[in-house]
Amino acid sequence: xxxxxxxxxxxxxxxxxxxxxxxxxxxxxxxxxxxxxxxxxxxxxxxxxxxxxxxxxxxxxxxxxxxxxxxxxxxxxxxxxxxxxxxxxxxxxxxxxxxxxxxxxxxxx
Length: 109
Prior knowledge:
Layout: E1 10-13, H1 16-19, E2 24-30, E3 35-42, E4 53-55, H2 56-60, E5 65-69, H3 73-76, H4 78-90, H5 97-108
Antiparallel strand pairs: 1-2, 1-5, 2-3, 3-4
């Protein structure tokens, strides 16, 4: 059974090569061409911050993508997406709380 895909949702990629990396995508926009622009928000061993275009039908399939976070008013706010992208760019093993706070402050001002 397919689910409804909406901007703001976070989905975990269940492809065999992605499951071990715990790759998670936030849906940004749904295109008229049947594809969704997504933002990679989590990916062990991969590159976060990328914006892949993925078929909406694939995102709607529970066997291909697991729904991790439902869209809500906060995630629908464009500032949230900008903040998430900025924090993702700072995220690394040596990042400190101050790094995250500084990027959040700079992004929201």
